[in-house]
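User: Please predict the structure of the protein below. I'd like the answer in structure-token form so I can feed it into my own downstream comparison script.

Assistant: Understood. Taking the following sequence of 555 residues as input:
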Amino acid sequence: MSFVTQPVVALFISLALGYLIGKIRVGPVQVGGVCGTLFVALALGQFGVTISPDLKNVAFALFIYALGFTAGPQFFNNIRGGLRYGVLSFVEVATVLALVAVAVLLFNLDAGTASGLFAGAATESAVLGTASDAISRLALPAAEISRLQANMATAYSVTYLFGLVAIVVFTTQIAPLLLGIDLRKEATALAQQLGAEGDNGTENGVPEIVSRAFRAGPVSGSTVGAFESSVNGVVTIEQIGRSSGFIKATPETQIEPDDVVLVIGRRRSVIAVSERFGVEVPMPAGDNVPLVERQVVLVRREVAGLRIRDLRRLASDEQRRGVFISRVRRLGQSIPALPGTVLEQGDILTLYGSEDAITRAATELGHMLPTTSATDFVMLGLGVVAGLLLGELAIQVGPLNLTLGTGGGALISGLVFGWVHMHRPLLGAIPPAAAEFMKDFGLATFIAAIGLSVGPDALALLKQYGLMLPVLSILVSAVPGLISLYIGHHLLKIEAPILLGAIAGQHCSTPSISALVSLAGNSTPVIGYTVTYAISNVLLPLMGPVVVGMIELIH
């Protein structure tokens, strides 16, 4: 057993077994690696294993900085212009704070237990870091601080699972029942409003942007530009095949009777204009059709807020020729790339078309996504240090010493550096895969360190509160969703699939949005999810010190 209790060995056993447990799925509910890691670490902690606090602090600083860095572009944009959905994140924060305050008054919860309840019921693990830092700054003996932090970890481990189940069941079963809707039918109708093709509006994996080859037929004698103008630019003649081979088509190119024209556009548009040509012919060899995909970060503020169809209408004939938006990713989630989809600053657009056309369009939208796989450690180091310095600033308000702490400071710094990187891609690069590793490994290591340090105190808390914590977590998880459902449906008039996605996002619940997308049959719920997720993922961690300070005032 001495080998297992070595700190490094115990840490990686916690990670390995924790993520193995996290893969267990019951219906749409999956515990997840972070919570699984805490379960294993709590068990190993009973043998007296401890990990250096310095490792815990480094891991959390990396996690929270990467969290802010990846959320920065969308967070600032949503705060500025996405409050129709984003207001639900503020409902989440205010309601959870109020419910936790009531629980403290009724059951005399200490700062650690209440912070764990807040983090677990809201399924926001980052709160543990900011709350733990705030607890460590309290004017209490070291033994009492350790006890409070142990209570926080134990309360989180108990309440997280029940909070997770509650929000998944609420968004996928209870909320549609209260609204009296069939989610799949509502999502299909919404997708068709946004311009989806087909009768069911589902995303079946068939490419949205297609290319077809036709004999020129009736359009011969016209120029390429004249034909494209006659169909309002919904398709582009990219190349023309003649006896000498394929040539690049320009608006001035004259179409001859024996030409083969290569047409690209959205599937529905290509089908609609196909009757204007002669017979369809087999596609030419791949080396004759140099169409590529490139990812572009949407930066220009003038373009943000426009629908895809409006973007094409506003572009000049030359700007929109030969390029189409085939996919849109926001905060790592795919949203429907449909004509009615509204674009936001920070979106990753996949452009499909010729290299020249994409390069031309990219300069009007933002900039090409850097292909580098190297992390800018200069800016990473400066960003983390700036966050730590910011976290040291404090304001004395009566008996309270208000400070962002390590977590809050690093989060704010990450937001700013992420926003700067979006506008200046050569500064502070952290490749998406590296940022995800920083978040996953940093949080899991931090959680493992907390769990290993808890020791026997965990059992004492469970004996003290029994079933009360699971019941409280269900209430704290479901009540904010219920209030948001009323506000979103009756006051904000948000479409049902988007509203349910927004409720999942305000709770930062990835399992909920996965279940919703599965039930809806398309990704329309993700439209609301990304807005509230970006805001809640910042606001909820910042509430850690607020919860601790609030409890100190109550007591």
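That's the full token string. Residues 199-206 have pLDDT under 50 and may be disordered.
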